[in-house]
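User: what does the whole thing look like in 3D?
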Amino acid sequence: MTTTDEDTASTANTDLGTDRIQRITMPKWGLSMESGKVTDWFVTEGDELTHGQDICEIDTDKIAGALESTWTGTVRALVVDTMVEVPVGGTIALVADVDVPQEEIDAALAQAREQLASGDIADDSGPRLATVEVNGTSISYAVLEPDGESTGAPVVFVHGYGGDKDSWMFVQEPIASDVDRARATYALDLPGHGSSGKVVGAGTVESLAATLLGFLDALDLSTVHLVGHSMGGAVVTAVAGNPGAAGRVASLTLISPAGYGPEINADYIRGFASAETRRELKPHLLQLFADQSLVQRQLIDDLLKYKRLDGVDKALATLSGDLLDGDRSGIDVTAAQASFAGPTVAVWGAQDRIVPASNAAALDGRASVHLVDGAGHMAHMEKPQEVVAAIREAIGSG
Amino acid sequence: MATRTISYRDAVNEALAQEMERDPSVIVMGEDVAGGVAGDGDDDAWGGVLGVTKGLYPRFPDRVLDTPITESGFIGAAVGAATRGFRPVAELMFVDFIGVCLDQIMNQAAKFRYMFGGKAVTPVTIRAMYGAGLSAAAQHSQALYPVFTHLPGLKVVLPSSPYEVKGLLIQSIRDNDPVIFLEHKAMYDVTGEVPEESYTIPFGEANVVREGDDVTIVAMGWMVSKAVEAAAELAASGIDAEIIDPRTTSPLDLDTILESVEKTGRLVIVDESSPRCNMATDISAQVVSEAFGDLKAPIKMVSPPHVPVPFARSLEDLYIPSPQDIVNAAKTVTDWNG
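Assistant: Here's the predicted 3D structure for the full assembly of 736 residues, as C-alpha cells:
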C-alpha cells in the first residue's frame, strides 16, 4: 500500500494530536532519495495554499526541483529553515484553517521539530516497487495506487534511452494525487534499463512497444493513458497506433518524443552509450538540461553505476542502432500517431539539444504542442509543472 | 539496478560466485578456502580464515582448491595457471605473507607480458587482507600496497566500500594483467548498497566521495571512512572538504586529484602505510611537479609513524591515522598564512 504525500499527512496527524492540521512533508523524489533541503520558500506563514501552487524549492543530492502543493488551507508554520537537511517524510510546514487556535499550531510545531531532532521519521511515502515477467524479461516498475477505488484510467510512464522509472519523480505523484480523480500510476523500466532485465532482443521501437503491450496485459490494464519521453515517446506512440491495441490507449502525452522528425543529436546517443568514466559521461549529460547546474555528482554516479552493469553496454548499443540512421533519426512513428484517434499532447523544451523542438512541426494540426522555455530535453525534470499540466490536458475527463 | 545492503565480506563472496558462474575458467585457490578439509556441510562452515569463500566449495567443487600452507607453491601455481587459460583468484590470507612468494609476483607474473613481447597474458588476481586495527601484531597488520604500486606490470586495488569491492573484484578477475586486490581486515562487517547484478568499476578512475571547495583530502581503503568522519567535523567548523578515493593506486587517477587541487589549492593525503616511500609521498611529489602554482599551502601527509604496527591495542590506536589527525592536518593547510 502506498500513499501520496497527502495521505501520509493525514495518517500522521494523529501523532500531532489534531486532525485539523496537515503536515507538508519532505517528498520522496526517486527511490534512492533519503533526504533533501529546502533552498527557498515560496510561501510564508499566513499564505493561502492552492492545489498546484509551488511551495518551495528543494535540493536533493541528485537534482533540485519545486514542491507542488497537493494541500489547500493556510500556511500556519514553516517548520524548517532553508539549507537544513531533512529526511524524507520529515515535516517541513504545517497547513490548517485560520480558525485552528495558535496554541494547537505551536504544539504541533514543537512536536514536528522534536521528531526531526530525534530522527524518528517513518519514510512511508513514495511508490511501491514490483516486477513482472513480460515475454521472458523481468520488468521492474513503480506503482502508486489510490487508497480507495480508482475512478480514472491508470497512467503509464515510459522513460527515454538510458533513463529509468526514477526520472518521473516530479510527475508521477502529482498525477496520482489529483483531487478530482483517483487513479493508479505506473512507471516502468524498459528492457535494458533500470532494474529490468538487460536483454533487449531486437532492441527496436517495435520490440519495446511489444514489451509495453505485454506489460499492460500482464497487469490487466485494459485502458490506459500513456506518457512517454524521448525514445519512450516513440514507444507509446507505436502502442497507440497498433491496431491490436485499438481502444486501449485513452490519450498520449509526449515529452520531446523521438521518431517525429529527422533531427536527433547522434553524438549524444553514441557518446552516452560509449562513455565509461565520469569524465567522459559528464559533457554528454550537460546537454540534457537547459540549466546545467542540475547535473550533480550523484546523478552522474548513478548513471555510471547503471552503465557498468553487465549487459547494459550491449543493450544501449543495440538500441542506438535502431534510434540512429547515420547522424539522423532511424525511426519514424508519425504514421502510428496519425492512426491514433485519441488526444495527443506534446511538451517540448525550447532548449532541447537532443531531440530539437523543430521536430514538433510533425505534430502540427495533430496535437496540442507546448513549447517550454527554460527546459532542455528533460522537461519532466526541469519544468515538471508544465508536464503535469500537459498530462492533465491529455487525460481530460477520462 | 536492483540494490540491497550487504557487507564488504559478502560483496567479495558475491563477486567470486557470480564470476565463477559466468566464466568456467575462474578458479579460487588458497589456504582453507574450501573449508579446511575440502568438504561440504559442517566442513564448509568456515570458508577460509576470513569466512569470505563460504558456500563456494559446494557450488563449484572442482574450482575451489584448498592448498597446502605454502604461498611460494600456490601463488606460483596460480600465476602458471593464468598463463595457460585460467583466471585464478588466489587468496593469500594476510598480505604480510607475500615475502615468501614475491618472486612469483614481482619477477614472473608482473613481467610475463613484457618479457614475452605480449604473447603471454597473466590474468591472475591475488586477494589478501591488509592493515591495522584488529590487534593482529606486526607480522599480520601491514599495509604493503606501496610495495606493489612500485612494480610496473601489477595493478593494485584498494576497495573502500562494499560497492567498490564487488565492482573492482569483478574487474580484477576479467582484467588480463596480474592484480593485487587488498581487502582491509577491519572492514569486513561494513555494509553498503550493492547492485544484485554483476558490474565492473574501471581501474584508474578515482571516486569523488564528497565535493568541497576548501581542501582536497585524498584517502584510500579504510582511510576513506576516516576522511568522511573528518569532513563532517570540518564542515561544522565551516571548512568544506573534497574527498577523493583513488580506488586503485596502480593505475592512479592523478587527473582527478589535480583537478580538485586546482579548485581547492590545498591537499591532505591520508595513507595507512608506513610513511617513507608510500602513496602519500608519491602523490605529493606528483602534485607538486604538476600543479605547484595551484597550491596555496604545503601539502600535509597523514600517515602512521615509521615503526612496525604495535600489538598493544592502546598503541595500535595511536598508530592508525584518526579522523582527528585528518582534521588537524586540514586545518593546518586551510589556516596557512605563508
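In plain terms: The first strand of chain A starts at residue 21 and ends at 25. Residues 1-17 of chain A have pLDDT under 50 and may be disordered.
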